[in-house]
Amino acid sequence: MSTATTQDPEHRTVVRGIGFPALGGPATTPLGWPGPDTVSRETAQAASEAEPAPGTGRLPTPSTAQTAPGAEDRTPDGAQDDTEEREQIAAALPGAGDETPLAQAVADDARKRITLSGRSVPRPSRTRVLTVANQKGGVGKTTTTVNVAAALAQAGSSVLVIDLDPQGNASTALGIEHHAEVPSVYDVLVEGRPIAEVVQECPDVPGLTCVPATIDLAGAEIELVSLVARETRLQKAVSAFVAEREDAGERVDYVLIDCPPSLGLLTVNAFVAASEVFIPIQCEYYALEGLSQLLKNIELIRSHLNPRLHVSTILLTMYDGRTRLSAQVAEEVREHFPDQTLRASVPRSVRISEAPSHGQTVLTYDPNSSGALSYLEAAVELAERGAAAHQPTQESA
């Protein structure tokens, strides 16, 4: 079995654009599955030199996603609208009946790949600041944060991830150093250090940056208690950073804040800093029970600290189509929150769980997996909904 560390000239490399790797080695199968090659973390430099794979037996692809070099030039402003062409190609794929769920899943993934491969998303008119929150642990907050951020960055957006969880899992998934000596979000909150002095670039995804979390953040809640304006410290830092980048002509399109599984001062800071709440919900009963408590706390923040705060996005995670429970939870969430719940849902996926152990998101670890396709779909929907709503978000300080 191949591993990501195997030194082989025929490595997969990831290119810009909500795209999939340029396969420099063996040709793909007719549905676009990769041949027996390995995954490489060489992204930016190697991608520009990668040659497109032979097209033998491959399904026709839209003109904007035919070759790897074209992906380098894709930008939301100059992107060619080929949505109709993609839909026609996807519709031409043979269907699969309900009696063959595996074939149906493969066909659905193939359609998603054709629809999303190399596609650009509209950039927001202003910086969108989203807090990814749910006080219940294990619902996919960190996984959702890093993978949606990576998908948006691959589409050409400028994305900042703020890791506000003392465990530092978001920093790990993005390949960011976060040992005790590294300047981190702790210095921003407690010491008043500017974000520009602690931010790091993600080595795998151009356009994606991260403010890491270290173990020092575990004591920040206690230290914040005695500080002046303790609830607004992150908001001031984010506003200053966004304004600074905009003045420099390098506007940040999205700020995603990964919260700890609690409702303490760190999460309150995240709620005050953002204007949108992004809630991942695991398709199980306990997640529904926790959602009602979360909504009550969001309403308290709205009343006393941040009247602009609202729930803009809900994403169903760990969806298992084989069980009635997942379907029932999804149905109930969509019934109560029809405008906020994304059409996309994220299935249980081994690839999603494996990716952090390699210091990567699933978008770079295995772009063709069902988990990567689902997060791509969610990111596109998130961006398009925001563009359609013309949602103002972050006020400059």
TrEMBL record:
Q: Which InterPro entries match?
A: AAA_dom, DNA_Partitioning_ATPase, P-loop_NTPase
Q: Which domain of life is it from?
A: Bacteria
Where is the AAA domain positioned along the sequence?
A: 128-310
Q: Membrane-spanning regions, if any?
A: none
Extract the Pfam families matched here: AAA_31
Query: What Gene3D superfamilies would the database entry show?
Result: P-loop containing nucleotide triphosphate hydrolases (3.40.50.300)
Q: Which CDD domains match?
A: ParAB_family
Q: What is this protein called?
A: AAA domain-containing protein
For region Disordered, the annotated ranges are 1-86
Q: Which PANTHER family match?
A: P-LOOP CONTAINING NUCLEOSIDE TRIPHOSPHATE HYDROLASE, PARA FAMILY PROTEIN CT_582
